[in-house]
């Protein structure tokens, strides 16, 4: 089926605009030929794409060099323009869908055969090993698609495909129950989502950050208490409450994470979302005596992402975002990189 036939008369231009990484650290606006989806792919008209902290690696350290040029962006929401011949009928032209960091599982590797699709060894990473959503059009594997609820605006839904599902799943895996103390380390793009989810899941929520400038935001987003590590001892604070049953770390600083291990309650867990280069120092004695857990959490499957979106609608969880048009992506990216955003930046397009 041709693109024109799939669109039922809606005109499709022969080219589309994209912000691509032509060389490490450089984003440029280009025109590309409009592609036709392969058998298991769909062609998406992008409406919104969030800018994530993980985009820094894709843009600044875009390797291997032979993979360039590459279009970054992995918080993508848009409408299906065309379907490949092997795409299952649950997806239809005109449907609003999203694609996150995980670009679609293969369905045949050992992890897929166990139903652990987020651990698929053969799926692309959107914006890194395949082109992402800083563009008007994007190809995506059908297995990576997420249905977007009508109640969510595209701009609000975009950050939920990464920051939302990452924090939502981390809280679901952490082992805490309603009424338990849960601490959120880092009040930024991830942390501001974690605070909202944690409060609505029924936890006693402690926000841990650096500087009084984020206190008001942390409390407004759902924290019962805010601990400023520049002037307060977070470990002593949490121990006075009986310890944290879970700590969700959204930062990549190993020392900051390690310092909080002593604040865990018996059988408590620390869940790592922020990736860093430094090894995490862990004292094995307290870990064993307290039966503590240290675990990582990787976003989630399309099914889990749809659960996160549905919960967001039911519980009234929304990201705090700023919007910029696609052609200003380089400016928007630099603002995100400098920390000058409250709390997520979203690119918007309007061509289709």
How would you describe this structure in keywords?
alpha/beta, 352 residues, 7-stranded mixed sheet
Distance between the termini: 20 Å
Q: How helix-rich are the residues, as a percent range?
A: 25-40%
Unreliable sequence segments: none
Mean pLDDT: 94
Q: What is the ordering of alpha helices and beta strands?
A: HEEEHEEHEEHEHEHEHEHEHEHEHE
Beta fraction:
25-35%
Largest sheet: 7 strands, mixed
The number of E-state strands comes to 15
Please identify the oligomeric state.
single chain
Q: Please tell me what the overall shape is.
A: globular
Structural class: alpha/beta
Structural overview:
The structure is a single chain. With 352 residues, this protein is an alpha/beta fold. The chain contains eleven helices and 15 strands. The protein has helices spanning 3-6, 55-60, 110-113, 154-173, 191-200, 215-221, 234-240, 254-259, 284-289, 302-315, 329-338, and strands at residues 15-23, 26-33, 41-51, 76-83, 96-99, 137-141, 146-147, 181-185, 204-209, 225-228, 244-249, 264-272, 293-296, 321-325, 344-348. Strands 3, 4, 5, 6, 7, 14 and 15 form a seven-stranded mixed beta sheet that branches. A six-stranded parallel beta sheet has the order 10-9-8-11-12-13, with helices on both faces. The longest helix has 20 residues, at 154-173.
């Amino acid at each position: 089926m041709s693109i024109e036939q799939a669109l039922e008369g809606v005109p499709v231009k022969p080219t589309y605009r994209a912000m691509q990484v032509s060389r490490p650290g450089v984003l440029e606006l280009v025109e590309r030929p409009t592609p036709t989806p392969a058998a298991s792919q769909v062609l998406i008209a992008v409406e919104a794409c969030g800018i994530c902290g993980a985009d820094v690696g894709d843009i600044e350290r875009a390797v291997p060099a032979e993979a360039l040029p590459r279009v970054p962006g992995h918080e993508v929401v848009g409408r299906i323009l065309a379907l490949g011949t092997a795409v299952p009928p649950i997806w239809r032209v005109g449907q609003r869908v999203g694609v996150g960091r995980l670009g679609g599982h293969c369905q045949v590797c050992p992890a897929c055969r166990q139903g652990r699709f987020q651990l698929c060894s053969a799926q692309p990473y959107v914006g890194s090993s395949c082109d992402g959503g800083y563009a008007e059009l994007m190809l995506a594997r059908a297995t990576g698609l997420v249905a977007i609820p009508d109640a969510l605006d595209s701009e609000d839904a975009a950050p939920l495909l990464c920051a939302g599902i990452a924090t939502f799943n981390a809280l679901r895996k952490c082992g805490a129950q309603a009424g338990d103390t849960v601490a959120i380390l880092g009040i930024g793009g991830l942390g501001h989502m974690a605070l909202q989810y944690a409060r609505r899941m029924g936890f006693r929520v402690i926000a841990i950050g650096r500087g009084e400038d984020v206190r008001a935001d942390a409390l407004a987003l759902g924290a019962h208490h805010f601990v400023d590590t520049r002037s307060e001892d977070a470990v002593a604070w949490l121990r006075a409450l009986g310890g944290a049953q879970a700590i969700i770390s959204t930062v990549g600083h190993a020392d900051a994470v390690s310092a909080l291990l002593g604040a865990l309650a018996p059988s408590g867990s620390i869940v790592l979302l922020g990736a860093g280069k430094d090894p995490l120092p862990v004292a094995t004695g307290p870990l064993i005596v307290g039966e503590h857990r240290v675990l990582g959490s990787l976003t989630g499957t399309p099914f889990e992402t749809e659960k996160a979106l549905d919960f967001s609608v039911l519980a009234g969880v929304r990201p705090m975002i700023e919007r910029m048009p696609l052609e200003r992506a380089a400016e928007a990216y630099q603002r995100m990189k400098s920390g000058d955003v409250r709390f997520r930046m979203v690119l918007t397009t309007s061509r289709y």
